[in-house]
Amino acid sequence: MSRAPRAIKEQTFEEDPDLPVRAMPDLFGHRGAAETLQKAALSGRLPHAWMLAGPPGIGKATLGYRFGRWLLAGGAEGALPEAATPLHLDPGHTTFRRIAAGAHADLRALRPNTGEKGGVKQVIRVEDSRDAIRFLAMTPAEGGWRFVLVDGAELMRPEAANALLKTLEEPPPRAVLLLTTAAPDRLLPTIRSRVRRLDLSPLDIGELDPLLMRLLPQLSTTERATLGRIAEGSAGQAVALAEGEGLAMQALVDRALADPGDRRGWHALADAVAAKRDGSGFATFIALLRRAISAGVRQAARGEARPEWLGDRPLADWSTLWDRLGQLAAETDVLSLDRKQAVLTALLWLAPPRR
């Protein structure tokens, strides 16, 4: 009697969220920082430790990988042809392909992961830091350099930061350590004093739009423009908003601010914001509302054209409202309060003061 064929178990593969960063061939913004890194390497006096600082999602890790693969491909030794953009490496180059695949023997990346068992806080653990230190001390496998990228260095545990400090004090030869951080002041002063710091700025719309065309080709020109505005120069934030409900929530924010006195429409708007049971729509709505208020106040303070709704109350009152909205979001999350009621409360606060 013949046996029935055994069912083939479907294989699942874990998504690699870092792949688009490792495999990005083009430079969007940050040309000055890239030129500084390249000139330092070509000078023959390359500092062994760098820090790229700037807001989240603006391309710090992307630039870090760009520098790492250029260095490991022999860029510092003049082994690469001149290019129109600094730190350029042809995507067909074997070093580019291996780093994109996460398979280069002389490059290691550290990034935050879940801390204690069952916890959700993202940290860089001491064992990861010590592993990177041992890696840097080894002779380069391909005779060139060793390169470690610490992405999100402000999330290092204190013991991880202290372990890394020893390597900064006594760096091994032909080894480069590059830290990225959105909060440089959270790093140990002793670490900050031993790295060369480059501050990166958010991308302007001319730099951001071509990048969004590549990352989010399904969006229209209008949708990309909206994302560029609310993401404030951060490609990472734009992608996160697009993958969530960012565009839909921004439309609701615009509606709430355009006619804050429309009490008849409040319940429908609150229902739309609170529709998702996981609370993601509510969190995005409040974050975008606060971002719009903050941007409007900054425009007014600089003497630029201000949104019409900003004239409903003094600027100081808008700043107070920004704080209250943040507190409302935090309390709603921590105390598991009714999200629709929280939205209605926010809309009530937005309503023009009665004369």
TrEMBL record:
Query: What single Pfam family name could you report for this chain, choosing any that match?
Result: DNA_pol3_delta2
Q: What is the lineage of its organism?
A: Bacteria, Pseudomonadati, Pseudomonadota, Alphaproteobacteria, Acetobacterales
PANTHER family, per database record: DNA POLYMERASE III SUBUNIT DELTA, REPLICATION FACTOR C / DNA POLYMERASE III GAMMA-TAU SUBUNIT
Q: Which UniProt keywords apply?
A: Nucleotidyltransferase, Transferase
Task: Give the E.C. number(s).
Answer: 2.7.7.7
Q: Which organism is it from?
A: Falsiroseomonas oleicola
Q: What is this protein called?
A: DNA polymerase III subunit delta
EC main class here is transferase
GO MF terms held by the record: DNA-directed DNA polymerase activity
**InterPro entries linked:** DNA_Rep/Repair_Clamp_Loader
